[in-house]
Write a structure and sequence with these properties.
With 221 residues, the protein is an all-alpha fold. The protein contains ten helices and no strands.
Length: 221
């Protein structure tokens, strides 16, 4: 089996050092991310992920207790990457509700894989997860919320506690829109009927419009 294309070292070698363990964990994360981005979560097995990473199936469980825990780690990393990109752009531009809405919507739309992950978030949380993995994800989300609140404070000039609430509202809005506009399986095929066209929603259009309404609304209060 060829080495995973994202790896600089072969993950199949025995992990006897911290560096070796990191190589394997990174290989699993990269393989999982590629699979989660292209296939429905329920259709992916731990064996698929391990094979893609060039590792034995049993090795996966040395690093992640469940497939769900691996999903949450991939999502946490993807969300942090998105925040970093968005924050850098927002800081370079004129601070306004419109700028916030445009940058956030544009950068997220450029990451369709992240939208797909967000659409699956809550169903995955309710599946075969363990308390430690959920806690770790929620702590990561809390840190991201705090960082977003600081960014919104600078851009909107509102108190930090209020900006934290706005960040949570934005998260709920994005996840909800992702779920509604990215259905899978039977729901997706049903919505493709011409007579149901009036209830179909485009994620990008709905997202930027909703974000503008959110940021302009809180800025006027």
């Amino acid at each position: 089996m060829d080495k995973h294309p994202l790896m600089t070292k072969d993950p199949r070698t025995r992990a006897t050092t911290e560096e070796g363990r990191k190589v394997r964990a990174d290989a699993l994360l990269a393989a999982a991310r590629e699979l989660f981005e292209t296939r429905d979560f329920i259709d992916i097995s731990t064996a698929d992920i391990a094979q893609r990473a060039g590792l034995a199936k049993g090795t996966l469980f040395l690093y992640f207790k469940t497939k769900e825990a691996l999903f949450l780690e991939v999502l946490s990393i993807s969300m942090r990457d998105w925040f970093t990109e968005s924050a850098a752009l927002i800081k370079k531009r004129k601070k306004s509700p419109q700028t916030l809405a445009t940058v956030i919507a544009t950068t997220l739309l450029a990451r369709p894989a992240l939208i797909r992950l967000l659409a699956s978030l809550h169903p995955v949380l309710d599946r075969n997860n363990d308390p430690n993995s959920i806690l770790k994800f929620k702590e990561s989300l809390l840190q991201l919320t705090n960082d977003t609140a600081s960014l919104f404070h600078e851009a909107l000039g509102l108190p930090i506690p209020r900006c934290a609430r706005i960040a949570l509202w934005m998260h709920s809005l994005i996840v909800g829109l992702a779920q509604v506009t990215s259905p899978s399986g039977l729901v997706r095929s049903t919505l493709e009927r011409p007579d149901l066209a009036h209830i179909q929603r485009d994620f990008g259009t709905e997202l930027e419009g909703s974000l503008r309404a959110l940021f302009e609304g809180v800025n006027k209060r």
